[in-house]
Amino acid sequence: MTAAEPARRSFASEFGVRTARRMALIEITAEVQRAVEASGVREGVCHLFVPHTTAGILINENDDPAVARDISAALDRLVPPGAGYEHLEGNADAHIKSALVGISAAVFVERGRLALGRWQGIFFCEFDGPRERRVRVKIVPDP
């Protein structure tokens, strides 16, 4: 494939995320964009998947860090740790938060770039850290 030729196959990669706190939203937009660039796909869809039951992924504002803190605080109010859950490991709140936020996202790729809105970023959501985590990326070109 030359630089002028569009990629015709899907491209898969993954990268690690190291978390330092029990709950955190970590922006990963730049890492995902690097995967898009490595794929050579100019037009298509970037699929993101987190293979963990106590983590998630979301797209939201990345300009003001207070937004990520507000989301974390709201999730803790909705699903507080240690609220008498039946799950014996003590991390039931993390499983519920993961279920609420979701473990996947998709973003259009246009002209070789993630087609995010002006204020949007991609966040890895840690609900049971600190841990070593993985994010899987698959970029599929338009036919």
Task: Spell out the blueprint of helices and strands.
Layout: E1 11-18, E2 24-27, H1 29-39, E3 44-49, E4 55-61, H2 65-78, H3 92-101, E5 104-110, E6 113-114, E7 120-126, E8 132-141
Antiparallel strand pairs: 1-8, 2-7, 3-5, 3-8, 4-7, 5-6
Summarize the structure.
With 143 residues, this protein is of the alpha+beta class. The protein has helices at 29-39, 65-78, 92-101, and strands at residues 11-18, 24-27, 44-49, 55-61, 104-110, 113-114, 120-126, 132-141. Helices cover 24% and strands 36% of the residues.
Structure description:
This protein has 143 residues and is α+β, with helices and mostly antiparallel strands. It has 3 helices and 8 strands, in the order E-E-H-E-E-H-H-E-E-E-E. The strands form 2 sheets. Strands 1-8-3-5-6 form a 5-stranded antiparallel β-sheet, covered by helices on one side. It has a 3-stranded antiparallel β-sheet with strand order 2-7-4, with helices on both faces. Strand 5 (104-110) and strand 6 (113-114) form a beta hairpin.
Give the key terms:
5-stranded antiparallel beta sheet; elongated; 143 residues; 8 strands; 3-stranded antiparallel beta sheet; Jelly Rolls; single chain; alpha+beta; 36% strand; 3 helices
- The CATH topology assignment is Jelly Rolls
What is the string of SSEs from the N terminus onward?
EEHEEHHEEEE
**Model regions low in confidence, pLDDT < 50 over at least 5 residues:** none
Q: Estimate the strand proportion.
A: 35-45%
Mean pLDDT: 95
Q: What distance lies between the first and last C-alpha atoms, to the nearest angstrom?
A: 16 Å
